[in-house]
Amino acid sequence: MTLRASRWVLAALAAAGCAASSSARPPQSTPAPTAPAASAQATPAAGQAAADTEANPFPSTYRPLPWAPTLIRNATVMTAAGPTLANASILMSAGRIVAVGPNVVAPAGAVVVDGTGKYVTPGLIDVHSHIGAGASLEGSELDDINEVTNPNTAQVWVEHSVWPQDPQFWLALAGGVTTEQILPGSANLFGGRSVVLKNVPARTVEGMKFPGAPYGLKMACGENPKRVYGARGGPQTRMGNMAGWRAGWIRAQQYREQWAKWRKEGSDPSKRPQRDLQLETLAGALDGRLLVHHHCYRADEMAEVIDMSHEFGYHIASFEHAVEAYKIRDLLAREGICGSMWSDWWGFKMEAYDGIKQNIALMDEAGACTIVHSDDAQGIQRLNQDAAKAMAAGREAGIAVDRDRAIRWITFNPAKALGIDRVTGSLEAGKMADVVLWSGDPFSVYSKAEKVFIDGALIYDRDDPRRQPSSDFTLGNTLELDR
Amino acid sequence: MRRAFQATRLAAAALFCLAGAAAAQTIAITNGKVYPVSGPVIERGTVLIRDGRIAAVGADVAVPAGARVVDAAGKVVTPGFMNAATGLGVVEIGAVQQTNDQSLNNRRITAAFTVADAVDPFSTLIPVERVEGITRAVVAPGGSSALILGQGMVIDLGTGGLPSMIDRSPVAMFVTLGSAGARVAGGSRAAAMLELREALQDTRDFAANRRAFDANARRAYALSRLDLEALIPVVRGELPLAVRVNRAADILEVLRFAREEKVGLILTGVEDGWVVAREIAAAGVPVVLDPMQNLPDFEARGATLANAGRLARAGVRVAFATFDAHNARNVKYYAGNAVAYGLPWDAALRALTIDPARIFGIADRYGTLEPGKDADVVVWSGDPFELSTLVEHVFIKGAEMPASTRQRQLLERYRRLDPSNPPGYGHP
User: Fold this and answer.
1) Mind listing the pLDDT tens digit for each residue in B337-364?
2) Which residues, at least 6 apart from B176, have a Cβ–Cβ distance to it below 8 Å?
3) Closest approach of chain B CAs to the CA of A349, in angstroms?
4) What pLDDT does A481 receive?
5) How high is the mean pLDDT of chain B?
């Protein structure tokens, strides 16, 4: 209590503009090849409540692992920032991409990797995962995804559920995933605060936290909240869902006004308003400091949620799952809202019944921000395959899908939805060296991630067991028989 | 199928609605790269279909006058694929209980439960799966409220409806052991094994003393009369147990159980199978597995993508399954991933065709492109396991399948968004 209070005082004193976190390597210091809308959304308006009430008490302690200057040469490079480059090279050093192109020379002492016949892509990014919060081990002891105690649990932070030893992180890494957003579950209208992680081995979750990445707020539409709370005081209906969100936003507005008034009147410590973790998170979403990720399947519900976002003046970063996005793809494109989708999941519940395999291709064709996500510990291992399936489905229906756009579904576009596209998500000089070397075309079922670099450090090497992170759980649990 | 889907959808639908007529057709699929499964690949071959059956396969098959010719130049031709554990036909929407007949919560009916009695030939799932090359499927009872889940069947995914779509029923008695079985039995795997053994003992006693049972002059049995009757073919060795089990030790326990009880056995799940592959192979027991299961837990510490390849290398007969309904179509990509992790390509093809056919007793009529077998034939644009490959034609029992599915109708409806003409009004 004392510690928390004193931290708060320190933060309040330090106030001013720097809101998001005390980052070791703040993305603001890096070149910004693009300045997309989602990142702008993530930037707090000057003088907002952020630093007053919300200096991050759980700062990232991530540091890039030891690296060596590395040149991958003569590979097919899919940059996610432009056309694929044949027979190209990529040079990484000091955590950054130094150069990408046909004539990159390795500095003396650099590790040179021959990429002949191989492909290079940005590290894959999953905008929707629960690994760490829900480990693969059976039983409820490690199931910490859904705080099913109230339809509004905006006060919970999923990072406090993340077990860094979940073996699923390293399976995802072997699938080329370098960054993932861990979201609370979808039982609640307001599920809680997300966290963005670098997919690196660490003793603590703080050691995995993506420096400077904005937080997200998880919300959920439709069947889940009403199923879970229908017999527990509500919401019992979709109209109850809507009323619940709006009530939450109204209280968040009041909270925000309370703090604004206090600041306006001189920030007298003796009159400081009471902090409320739930409203702090919701107010942060209204301010645009937290990016809103709203689980929603049906088109009509998404449209209503968009109206609600206008009512309260916030932006939705992404509709999660969005199996009916194709029905309102023009609206989503116009609103600049991403759809985070599967290639082919459908029918497992009523609101998923209208899922079609062309959902992703149609969104892409409409110019909407198109993301392939997993929400699944197996799917996260094969985001590239899911994108390939969506691409094939589009072509089957005569929807032109460009490979160089499809690679963005699993790299740049999720980075954008997470507000980290200025620092990762594409292969451009100055960006974080989050890079995957594939054995072949990443859209082939037979291709595998061979080497995965995070901030230029070789975190995974399929050919070198010493360069393959493993969970503590694995120790003693590998089944080797002596025979 | 792609061509029909894109260009002549309506004409194709009209044509292929005449399923009965199509079955009587003579069709020659020519110039394709043919994988008969029963023999080596034919680089440029013809598959001749007559009266619903395969009439001839080879490089030098003459095309009879009047035959419909499907030019498969540059294409790949295989048997239709079989998914060895699904909920097709008994699950419409997973979470809508009223549309889900795959599982029971009824301790009085377990072994007697027969999914064939609940199948819906008009399920919207079936067309969705078949247009992607799935032509046969095992439909297995699901659930977790009993050790003995009931009797599964094999269906074809054609348009024939009932009863012809039921290829064979029952094909196996499905059982859940491992941690799920332990939970049902009160907390320990050991108790689950006892309960299963008791069920078979009771069945033998019942079969030998039916008259006494009917006269109420026999000891009480743990199972109901219906369940005991359903288990008689199992104790007689006529119907195999399909036991879901993952842990290596549990696999060994089930192998011992089947040997001692002299019952037929199929292992399903089998995530740790590679650890005891030698024992499974020695027992001659086949496995039905999802090769993508690699999430470690205490039930499957050794889960790995290499499982299928290692089992096959040890000589175990492997069939692939998705254990779901809605994406049963993806089993072909499961095969591709298994190949990426060590399973030979030809073995993966067998795991989707002849091996499940043998395991579930339909190899006399399905599983290879051999004269006399049902003409379940798929023409693919390329490698059927590859993500970019599209299905061009699907034949089931000699009838070309319609391209239409509920999903494709939704696509049609929303392909062009016209604000002045809302979808569903003046649209297909």
Assistant:
1) 999 999 999 999 999 999 999 999 999 9
2) B144, B146, B147, B149, B184, B243, B244
3) 5
4) 62
5) 94
Residue A233 reports pLDDT greater than 70: yes
Contact assignment for B95 to A348 by CB distance below 8 Å: yes
A123-424 folds as TIM Barrel (3.20.20)
Distance from CA of A479 to the nearest CA of B (A): 6
User: What are the tokens at A302?
Assistant: 């998404």
Question: What's the rounded Cα separation, in Å, for the pair B357 and B360?
Answer: 5
Q: A27 pLDDT exceeds 60?
A: no
B295 contacts chain A (CB < 8 A): yes
ipTM above 0.90, yes or no: yes
Q: Which of B332, B340, B275 has the alpha carbon at shortest distance from A381? A: B340
Top residue of A407, A446, A481, A482 to mutate, by most chain B CBs within 10 Å, is A446
Give CA–CA dist A406/A423, Å, rounded. 20
- Strand pairing of A119-122 and A70-77? parallel
The pLDDT of residue A281 is 98
- Contact B93/A347, CB-based, under 8 Å? yes
pTM: 0.92
Q: Which of B363, B375, B290 is nearest to B328 (CA)?
A: B290
**Average pLDDT, stretch B221-243?**
97
Verify whether the Cβ–Cβ distance A357 to B340 is below 8 Å.
Answer: no
**Which tens digit of pLDDT belongs to each residue from B50-79?**
999 999 999 999 999 999 999 999 999 999
Q: What is the pLDDT of residue B23?
A: 53
Out of A326, A378, A396, name the one closest to residue B295 (CB): A378
Residue A225 has pLDDT above 90, yes or no: yes
What residue segments make up the domains of chain A, in order of their start? 123-424
Which pLDDT belongs to residue B420?
Answer: 84
**Residue A33: pLDDT band with limits 50, 70, 90:** very low
pLDDT at A8: 30
Task: Give the dihedral sign, CA A375/A380/A386/A388.
Answer: positive
Q: Which amino acid type is present at position B351? A: A
Amino acid at B171: V
CB proximity B275 to A under 8 Å: yes
Amino acid identity of B357?
A
Nearest to A446 among B339, B410, B415 (CB): B339
Q: Inter-chain contact A347–B326, Cβ cutoff 8 Å?
A: yes
Residue B107 has pLDDT above 90, yes or no: no
Cβ contact, residue pair A479, B386, below 8 Å: no
Contact B386 A171 (CB under 8 A): no
CA distance B380 to B394: 9
Whether residues B387 and A443 touch (CB distance < 8 A) is answered with yes
B311-326 burial, b for 16+ CB within 10 Å, e for fewer? bbbbebbbbbbbbbbb
Question: If you search the block for the tokens 């960054």, which residue do you land on?
Answer: A179
Q: What is the nearest CA distance from B48 to chain A, expressed in angstroms? A: 27
Query: How far A328 CA sits from the closest chain B CA (Å)?
Result: 9
Chain A hits for B415, Cβ within 8 Å: 362, 397
- Summarize pLDDT for B252-309 with one digit per residue, the tens: 999 999 999 999 999 999 999 999 999 999 999 999 999 999 999 999 999 999 999 9
Binary contact (A327, B423; C-beta < 8 A) = yes
- State the maximum Cα–Cα separation within chain B, in Å, rounded to a whole number: 77
CB of A465 within 8 Å of any CB in chain B? no
Full set of structural domains in chain B with CATH: 2-79+387-406 (2.30.40.10), 82-366 (3.20.20.140)
Average pLDDT over residues A450-460: 98
